[in-house]
Design goal:
It is built from no helices and seven strands. It is mainly β and about 100 residues long. It has one domain: 10 Kd Chaperonin, Protein Cpn10, Chain O. A seven-stranded mixed beta sheet has the order 1-5-6-2-3-4-7, with no helix packed on it. Strand 5 and strand 6 form a beta hairpin. It is globular and about 50 Å long. The model has no long low-confidence stretch (mean pLDDT about 85).
Length: about 100
């Protein structure tokens, strides 16, 4: 789905901008996405929906998170790739050293 403008997630959903990682083999040849065996992907949280009573998000805006490849819904906003995912689908928060 292609959108333009502002997207506000529903309660307990997050809008995550996907992080593009270029994969290459040992010889520097870039590999297409279909050769990737992992089912986890990474993204940066752009917008969080409201929280519900006694529930919180496991991350903040601008956090880098890991979630299942099949979680959520894919969106394209202003030409950028995003996913709308549920808070419960966030598997890990990546903290830089």
């Amino acid at each position: 789905m292609e959108l333009k403008g502002i997207v506000t997630p529903a309660p307990m959903w997050a809008l995550v901008k996907l992080v593009e990682e270029k994969k290459s083999n040992s010889r520097g040849i870039y590999l297409p996405d279909n050769t990737e065996k992992t089912e986890l992907i990474m993204g940066n949280v752009s917008v969080l929906g409201e929280t519900r009573k006694e529930e919180t998000f496991p991350c903040d805006i601008t956090s880098t998170v890991i979630f299942d490849k099949w979680a959520g819904r894919e969106l394209k906003i202003d030409g950028e790739d995003y996913k709308l995912i549920k808070a419960e689908d966030i598997i890990a928060v990546v903290e830089e050293k």
